[in-house]
Amino acid sequence: MKVIGAGFGRTGTDSLKEALELLLGGRCYHMKEVIDAPDHVQRWYEFGRRGRVDMDWHALLADYVAAVDWPVANYYRELMAAFPDAKVILTVRDPDRWFDSFQVLVRLTAAMRWVALLPKFRRFARMVDTAVWHIFDERTSRAHAIDVFNRHNEEVKKHVPKDRLLVFDVRDGWAPLCEFLGVPAPDIPFPHNNTRGEVQRFTWGRVARDLVRALGWILIAALLAYLILRLVSGDAPAAMDGATRLAALA
Asked: With helix as H, strand as E and coil as C, how does 184-230 read?
């Protein structure tokens, strides 16, 4: 682990993820990684529920050279202790613009609780409530959320030694990041990812994909039940027709 991201989500963390993967030559952990990893969702949920105990950081992040975004940002102190040689990057953004973007995440996570056919997303929303949103008493209140945002940033600046910390605005591009990491700057534009529209497309794309899968299995189960019923009732031709349809779906 070479880099720990202490900046909240919606501060350019996805752009930073892509930049770090290019500069460090390895994978960077991000909430996007968590949503497709049920075991990580469960680990974060248990970690938040138990009050920050029993997390094996080295096992969780064994395949990564960096970790940014939520839920990591809330636990940067624990990660600093686990990886004492890692550097820390605090991504920052105008607080009002951050809040407006943050509300997209709040609404998307709330919507996930109502996707009844997909327990995966309900579990993800539960994890976010437990391991991320708990730091906000009123996450839809602009004044409160911005206060939490500002206090977190100031806490990071006070806690992390200056020689180990980069306060980074992704609009500044490669120069400060590459200087901090001691690597040459690539001759390509700095990534600009995960706009509000992209966040919505990414999230609902995952929901739609898994919903189609779930509906497919429901249809297969219904045809299988129909096949068994026909076999039990002695209607072999109808059973064979049902078997043909089932094979076509498989």
From this structure: CCCCCCCCCCCCHHHHHHHHHHHHHHHHHHHHHHHHHHHHHHHHHHH
